[in-house]
UniProtKB/TrEMBL annotation:
It comes from Hyphomicrobium nitrativorans NL23. GO terms for molecular function: catalytic activity; molybdenum ion binding; pyridoxal phosphate binding. Residues 103-251 form the MOSC domain. SUPFAM superfamilies: PK beta-barrel domain-like. This is Molybdenum cofactor sulfurase.
C-alpha cells in the first residue's frame, strides 16, 4: 500500500493552534521537534521542571474543556522561541517562552482571557526533552485523510482534519485502513515508523479549530456508526530522517 504525506503539524504549546511545517527532521523515539514543548498549567501546578514526568491533560489548559483556546491563532517563531497570539487577526500577546518576562506577558493575557474558568494563575511550563503529549510515550499522531472524508460523508458536513490534532496527515489509502496498520511499519520518505496504538477520541474533536465553537459530537458519531470512538493511530519513530510533504508513504 502506497500513499502520500500531505501534512506535517506540530503544536509548540499544548492546547493552542497547530503550526504547519513543510518538512521536519524525525529522531528515533522522539516526537516532532518542539511538539508540545510547552504547556499552560491551569492553576496550582504539579509539574516539576527539575523532575519532569507525564501528567494527565486535565492539569493543563486544553481543548477538551477549554474550547475558547481555539479562537486564538498561535504563531511560534522558532528562531527566537517567541509565541505570538492573535485573536480576530489582531495581536493580543507576544513573548519569548524561554524567558521569565516573555512567559509572564503570555500568562497575564491568558489569565484575563480564560477568566473564571481557571483554577488559579496560569503558568507556562517546560523542561528540556519533555513533551506534554496526551500519552506518556513519545509518539506521533497519524490521520488518514480518506477516513476524514468518509466521516464527512456520514455526518453530511465538512470536517477540518485539524480537529484530530494530527502530526502527520496521509492520503491515498482506503477509509479506516489505518486500523490495520497496528504492529506494522510505515515508511515516510527515508524515515521508518512503527504503528503502536489506535487513538481514542475525546470531546476536543467537537471543537471547531477555526472558531472555537463546540459544534459537533464526533466521539458519539463514531460510537454509533463504527462501534468505537477511535480515529487515527499513534506511531513511534524507529529510523529518524528528514521528511517533507509530498513524500511517499509505504505501509
Amino acid at each position: 500500500m502506497t500513499g502520500t504525506l500531505t501534512g506535517i503539524y506540530r503544536y509548540p504549546v499544548k492546547g493552542l493552534s497547530a503550526q504547519r511545517l513543510d518538512r521536519a527532521t524525525l529522531t528515533a523515539g522522539e516526537t516532532l521537534p518542539l511538539d508540545r514543548a510547552w504547556a499552560i498549567e491551569n492553576g496550582p501546578g504539579r509539574f516539576d521542571p527539575e523532575n519532569p514526568r507525564h501528567l494527565p491533560k486535565v492539569a493543563f489548559l486544553m481543548l477538551m474543556r477549554d474550547e475558547r483556546l481555539a479562537s486564538l491563532d498561535a504563531r511560534f517563531e522558532e528562531k527566537n522561541s517567541r509565541l505570538v497570539l492573535l485573536r480576530g487577526g489582531r495581536q493580543v500577546a507576544s513573548g519569548d517562552l524561554t524567558t521569565r518576562s516573555g512567559r509572564q506577558i503570555v500568562e497575564q493575557f491568558m489569565a484575563a482571557f480564560m477568566g473564571p474558568s481557571l483554577r488559579g494563575p496560569p503558568r507556562i511550563v517546560s523542561a528540556p526533552g519533555h513533551s506534554f503529549t496526551d500519552t506518556a510515550a513519545k509518539w506521533l499522531h497519524v490521520i488518514n485523510l480518506a477516513s476524514v472524508r468518509e466521516l464527512e460523508r456520514i455526518v453530511g458536513r465538512p470536517i477540518d482534519p485539524l480537529r484530530f490534532r494530527p502530526n502527520l496527515i496521509v492520503d491515498g489509502f482506503e477509509p479506516w485502513a489505518e486500523f490495520a496498520w497496528l504492529g506494522r511499519e510505515i515508511g515516510i520518505g527515508p524515515a521508518r515508523l512503527s504503528v503502536t496504538a489506535r487513538t481514542e477520541r475525546c470531546a476536543a474533536t467537537n471543537v471547531d479549530p477555526a472558531t472555537g465553537a463546540r459544534d459537533m459530537d464526533i466521539p458519539a458519531v463514531l460510537q454509533r456508526k463504527r462501534g468505537h470512538s477511535d480515529f487515527g493511530v499513534y506511531a513511534e519513530v524507529r529510523t529518524g530522517e528528514e521528511i517533507a510533504t509530498g513524500d511517499p508513504v509505504v505501509i
